[in-house]
Amino acid sequence: MLKFNRLKQITDDSKVICEALKSSSELVEVSENGDKIRRRPDKPLPGDTQERRDEINNRSIYAKGFPLDAKLDDLMSFFETYGPTENVFMKKEFHKKTFKGSVFVVFKNKEDAAKFISEEETKYQDSVLEVKKFKADYFKDKQAARKSKGNKKEDKSKPQEAEKNTEEEESEKARQQMTRNAVLFLKGMDPETSREEIKTFFAPHGDVGWVDFDKGSTEVSSWNDPFSRKSLF
């Protein structure tokens, strides 16, 4: 317990802490010499079962819209006005460790949690809370939002994939149609020659199915009708 930051702000004297626990704690007990503590044997930790998790979720809430400079003690006092709480967790930015303005709260009774959620308008100091929902509903909504975002990305990429697939299909179709001795390789072309000029040049000799040529290059490959290849020589 001496490692708890909030406790260290009050005192780091173990004797003072033990004396306070003797008269106030229902969960821990202090040794006879007053320098050790432990959880009371008659109040063991509850088992981690699905039933237990569901029971906690039924009295756990999420709320958003608190000032970014809000303090934990003030938040605890605020929620205690709705009923006793077991835990108030301030959500923080992962890297900066600054408060995000939202919290998870576990009430001791599900009725108090429901009362907080059902309130038509809830204000903290001068701020009206933007969101109030049960913790389980919060995670369901987050999961649905992630799924929707993923679907939008997938839909956005479909036109590009379709265009890419069309180009690949056309190239594959051309390769499948090629027959042996129907492809010419030429070298020494004028760099200013265009693809259309090459196709026009070969057209009188037969059907030109495909020209692999980039303007500025001096090399070209051309696929022609194999039945007319003799007329080229």
UniProtKB/TrEMBL annotation:
Pfam families found in the cross-reference section: RRM_1, RRM_3
Region (Disordered): 30-52, 145-177
Positions with biased composition (Basic and acidic residues): 42-52, 151-165
Keyword annotations from UniProtKB, A to Z: Nucleus, RNA-binding
PROSITE patterns membership: HTH_LA, RRM
SUPFAM superfamilies assigned to the protein according to its UniProt record, in alphabetical order: RNA-binding domain, RBD, Winged helix' DNA-binding domain
InterPro entries according to UniProt: La_dom_prot, La_HTH, La_xRRM, Lupus_La, Nucleotide-bd_a/b_plait_sf, RBD_domain_sf, RRM_dom, WH-like_DNA-bd_sf
Residue ranges occupied by any HTH La-type RNA-binding domain in the UniProt entry: 1-47
GO terms for cellular component: cytoplasmic stress granule; cytosol; nucleus; ribonucleoprotein complex
GO MF, one example: mRNA binding
Annotated localization: Nucleus
Domain RRM: 59-141
Domain of life: Eukaryota
Chief subcellular location: nucleus
One Gene Ontology term from the biological process aspect of the record: tRNA processing
Protein name: RRM domain-containing protein
Organism: Biomphalaria glabrata
